[in-house]
């Protein structure tokens, strides 16, 4: 959900005292990687024993950019996560996210 934001917006959200993000620069590097790949992998960062693959459901923003409206993820026990299956899972996940994004845009038209 943070990946479509400009870096200064992310810094405004997480660069202040009380933010759960300890290293904003590391977060920004991760977000650049997520933008480039079009998906994110959370390997036990928020829940021990759980790995998740996520993609944003985006629609055009009023300013002409793109806005993440929701997220879609596949979560599974880390013991069942297989890196060799990542391309298959990502393909299905991003295709579904893109389909939902198109339907949201069509519903607004």
Automatic annotation (TrEMBL):
Gene3D superfamilies from the UniProt entry: 3.30.450.40
Residues in IclR-ED domain copies: 1-106
InterPro entries: GAF-like_dom_sf (IPR029016), HTH_MetabolicPath_Reg (IPR050707), Tscrpt_reg_IclR_C (IPR014757)
Pfam families: IclR_C
Protein name: IclR-ED domain-containing protein
Species classification: Bacteria, Bacillati, Actinomycetota, Actinomycetes, Pseudonocardiales
